Amino acid sequence: MENATFSPVSRVAICGGTHGNEMTGMYVVREMQRQEADQTGSVSITTVISNPRAVEVCRRYTERDLNRCFTKALLSSPITDSTPYEVRRAQEINALLGPKESQEAVDLLCDLHNTTANMGMCLIFYSLDWLTLHIYKYIQSNMTSAPVRALLMSSPKSEAYSLESVGKHGFSIEVGPQPNGVLRADIFNMAKEAVDHTIEWLHKFNSGSTFEEGEVEAYTVVKSVDYPRDPTTNEITATIHPELQDNDFKLLQPGDPMFLSFSGETVKYEGEDLHPLFINECAYYEKKIAFHLAKKITVTLPSISVKKD
């Protein structure tokens, strides 16, 4: 593959508190603000508490999930008295860090999240971007505290609904398991280490280092699975089976236990071999998702370097 070149990545945003009960990102951002880490070498850093109202009440959101409010349609929608707070806040963030899909947008946006699922350290990408995938490769090579994995989504930039899509380049960091409203030292340290490695990589990239071609593994979502439900009441009738619980990324094969009904019956998996992700994630109950199923792929990366003037 031919070497790919990119402009220097000099303006970076680190965001936390997009979901107000996910504590790690909020405290990573506050610590960076306390240390006044707004300029480090070639990188100018903007830190943002994304959803301060939700943070104040320690809830995922107050009216609408902020991390679903960054589509072009919502960012350009007129503000009225009935506009949800999170849509207003998305437009404020877009004005601060964007506008989305413009030359004025920050070069890189990293949004920090927690999950109640046993996902470890997982980077989420909404497009095939050689630059951010090289950052993932670097973090994966340098982190020893936990496995580092990647989830690769595929959607046009204009339709991408999450905060990191505001930047020219962007990704989310999901770290767990951590209960909502709780701060764990090990999870905080993992997220902070990933942010530090990201900034290290940017310094090396901006200073002219070439990052050689290579391969990375990633997961792509095939489908989502809901809990078994009562056809009349629509209430769930089973929970995640103990043999599946906490086994995110472990291959799920036909016949493996999937759910355990409240009456004690095991529901077994039927279908192709796939990897379950975000198993029993608290925030997905309202979305009627028990877990995602994904396939593992290998992505070949070209070498990359900074574009010369």
TrEMBL record:
Residues 215-296 form the AstE/AspA barrel-sandwich hybrid domain. Pfam families: AstE_AspA_cat (PF24827), AstE_AspA_hybrid (PF04952). Gene3D superfamilies: 2.20.25.160, Zn peptidases. The active site is at E174. Its main location: membrane. It catalyses: an N-acetyl-L-cysteine-S-conjugate + H2O = an S-substituted L-cysteine + acetate; an N-acyl-aromatic L-alpha-amino acid + H2O = an aromatic L-alpha-amino acid + a carboxylate. It comes from Gymnodraco acuticeps (Antarctic dragonfish). InterPro entries: AspA/AstE_fam (IPR050178), Aspartoacylase (IPR016708), AstE_AspA_cat (IPR055438), Aste_AspA_hybrid_dom (IPR007036). Binds 1 zinc ion per subunit. One of its GO terms (cellular component) is cytosol. Its cofactor is Zn(2+). The gene is LOC117537755. Residues 9-198 form the Succinylglutamate desuccinylase/Aspartoacylase catalytic domain. HAMAP family: Aspartoacylase. Signal peptide: none annotated. It is a peripheral membrane protein. This is N-acyl-aromatic-L-amino acid amidohydrolase. Keywords: Cell membrane, Cytoplasm, Hydrolase, Membrane, Metal-binding, Zinc. It is found in: Apical cell membrane; Cytoplasm. It is an enzyme of class 3 (hydrolase). It comes from the Eukaryota. Zn(2+) binds at H19, E22, H113. GO terms for molecular function: aminoacylase activity; hydrolase activity, acting on ester bonds; metal ion binding. Its EC number is 3.5.1.114. Belongs to the AspA/AstE family. Aspartoacylase subfamily.
